[in-house]
TrEMBL record:
<comment type="function">
    <text>Guanine nucleotide-binding proteins (G proteins) are involved as modulators or transducers in various transmembrane signaling systems.</text>
</comment>
<dbReference type="GO" id="GO:0006952">
    <property type="term" value="P:defense response"/>
</dbReference>
<keyword id="KW-0342">GTP-binding</keyword>
<feature type="binding site">
    <location>
        <begin position="283"/>
        <end position="286"/>
    </location>
    <ligand>
        <name>GTP</name>
    </ligand>
</feature>
<feature type="binding site">
    <location>
        <begin position="214"/>
        <end position="218"/>
    </location>
    <ligand>
        <name>GTP</name>
    </ligand>
</feature>
<dbReference type="GO" id="GO:0009742">
    <property type="term" value="P:brassinosteroid mediated signaling pathway"/>
</dbReference>
<keyword id="KW-0807">Transducer</keyword>
<dbReference type="GO" id="GO:0048639">
    <property type="term" value="P:positive regulation of developmental growth"/>
</dbReference>
<feature type="binding site">
    <location>
        <position position="351"/>
    </location>
    <ligand>
        <name>GTP</name>
    </ligand>
</feature>
<keyword id="KW-0460">Magnesium</keyword>
<dbReference type="InterPro" id="IPR001019">
    <property type="entry name" value="Gprotein_alpha_su"/>
</dbReference>
<dbReference type="GO" id="GO:0005525">
    <property type="term" value="F:GTP binding"/>
</dbReference>
<comment type="similarity">
    <text>Belongs to the G-alpha family.</text>
</comment>
<keyword id="KW-0479">Metal-binding</keyword>
<feature type="binding site">
    <location>
        <position position="49"/>
    </location>
    <ligand>
        <name>Mg(2+)</name>
    </ligand>
</feature>
<dbReference type="GO" id="GO:0002758">
    <property type="term" value="P:innate immune response-activating signaling pathway"/>
</dbReference>
<keyword id="KW-0449">Lipoprotein</keyword>
Amino acid sequence: MSVLTCVLDNMGSSCSRSHSLSEAETTENAKTLTGEFCKRQKQSNTSTSSYFLIKLLFQTGFDEAELRSYTSVIHANVYQTIKILYEGAKELSQVESDSSKYVISPDNQEIGEKLSDIDGRLDYPLLNKELVLNVKKLWQDPAIQETYSRGSILQLPDCAQYFMENLDRLAEADYVPTKEDVLYARVRTNGVVQIQFSPVGENKRGGEVYRLYDVGGQRNERRKWIHLFEGVNAVIFCAAISEYDQMLFEDETKNRMMETKELFDWVLQQRCFEKTSFMLFLNKFDIFEKKIQKVPLSVCEWFKDYQPIAPGKQEVEHAYEFVKKKFEELYFQSSKPDRVDRVFKIYRTTALDQKLVKKTFKLIDESMRRSREGT
């Protein structure tokens, strides 16, 4: 995890200012990510890769051929989503006291079995009008909608509602994914992906050029990337604050926010970061501000002492400031006395808000330049 990137739930990136990365290497890394997703999506939680966001915001963006290459990933997200909801409804109908509201109609059960079977294949078909009609029928089933409202206990991707609302467009014969579609697509960061960029954009003077590492945050990925961090200028740690009521994919007994807390504490104490600047992204604020109105922050053990004040926007800000303070306290508790003077800044982010992300990266660039200049 490290400098100048925007990464989801327990992932990070690092940047240094040396060793340029060739376009061929960058493109090949992205192709590997996209190809591996279709084979591995059921094995791990997924997120928006910083590679795609950085390429869109600070490089040349995507041409039509590149956009088309994400069609299979996006369609896979749809199959994955509907299968999670279908399987979730079946499970809830067996274990919940009010189980009847999770019982899917017989006709839609048949559709659910067919769609679940498709998700289990490696050679699943692309979406078409007939398949979309089936997905819509199942999505609109009251039991599925009830299950969707319980998404925090399922491993349901954040893109679920977005893609379900755009099914007809996704299935068009001449469909070309939009930039927003690509950003919503869930792709696992498997191993380490690199990209070089400047926060002020290409062919402009004044900004630094960074080399970014996008790394997997899952437990089994961390051993692959910690050795990369010798000599980096800064670490960006991305914490998905909306996941305070969710469990890990790889350990459904472990709260995601508690895991984030432990990982942040561990990263702060690594010897390779003794003099390294830290930028904390409190990400997925857009989801957080909706969820906090329905799910109390105190469901997370770390936030059990939280006291709400009033519904509405005031409560959202109050809850956000509480979470921010918790991370600040953890930073100073975990930092040795000779490390507390390193640069530490917190940013509120929404990865899908491109203007906000671009502004945040420029602020980080300015902050780092001032730090090096001693101003």
